């Protein structure tokens, strides 16, 4: 097992390098880079002194940009002087060829130096991610746990009652839930319970209330879950149906195997057969997929939920960075999350082995 883990760890390096190279190459063909964004900002609003982060630039250059935009000598129709464009390209590092920029970026990322955001003057990429992390962790963790706590017991019950009225009714409800898009269900929750048209039971924005720091520990916990209730429910609906049916089918496959018939023939109770023999084998694929499911909820599908419930999470951070061509944030988060996803893949394999020691990855050719 040790050799297998070592091989997987070594494969992380070329895989991550390929991910970064592919995305970096794609951005070279995307129109409207950060410099074009700044030029459009200057021509549209007349002041970009807040947009330029400095990123190694000096105050004189910042003053030159501001005066060049707001002074009487500048008009949008005249265009920008070539010298200014050159200074702007140097400010963002675009005076270097793409290959040099890519390898310099990878060298910095290998040392976990993700640099500063271009459009947030006083914050590094790490600081921006840390600020948004509580929202994404809250959505990913509680949505995954809620899905497992509901889907596993329900899936087991459906397998035991396969073909019964209970199985048919719950299957219909699951299909309806699966057919409703997560964002539409989120809007429905807002309309019903967040003051949209009916009741105002839950808050509509943030993960805590103002003055949360001054509350008692019990009040803090209650306030936190009060804010997270609707976003978590909306995030759970998408993975709920799939996980329930996966649990049911896994149990049905195991229940029909020979060892279950043997256990029943020995006189073991149905509960002992189900939870003493079937459970461990049937839950292998379900429980081992927990890391991957958490990562998928954590990184994907949260943008719309965060937008509807006015939450500043990693989904909105990545979306805003992509729109503004804030490449340090785009590539920094891509590197960090890609690395985390690859590590989670290794943890998933280890989970398989912990649940079922019969699995031996070393025996595969």
Tell the overall outline: globular
Under the CATH scheme, which class of the largest domain?
Answer: Mainly Alpha
Radius of gyration: 26 Å
Number of helices: 16
Using the coordinates shown, work out and report the CATH topology of the largest domain: MetI-like fold
**How many strands, which pairing sense, and closed or not: the largest β-sheet?**
none
Oligomer: single chain
Structural class: mainly alpha
Task: Tell me the distance between the termini.
Answer: 13 Å
Q: Order of SSEs, N→C?
A: HHHHHHHHHHHHHHHH
CATH superfamily of the largest domain: MetI-like
User: What is the strand tally?
Assistant: 0
Mean pLDDT: 77
Low-pLDDT residue spans: 45-78
How much β-strand is present in the residues?
A: under 5%
Helix content: over 70%
Number of domains: 2
Structural account:
The chain is mainly alpha-helical and 365 residues long. It folds into 2 domains: 60 residues, no CATH class; 230 residues, Orthogonal Bundle (MetI-like fold). The chain contains 16 helices and no strands. α6 packs parallel to α16. 25% of the residues are buried. This is Microcin C transport system permease protein. Keywords: Cell inner membrane, Cell membrane, Membrane, Transmembrane, Transmembrane helix, Transport. It is a multi-pass membrane protein.
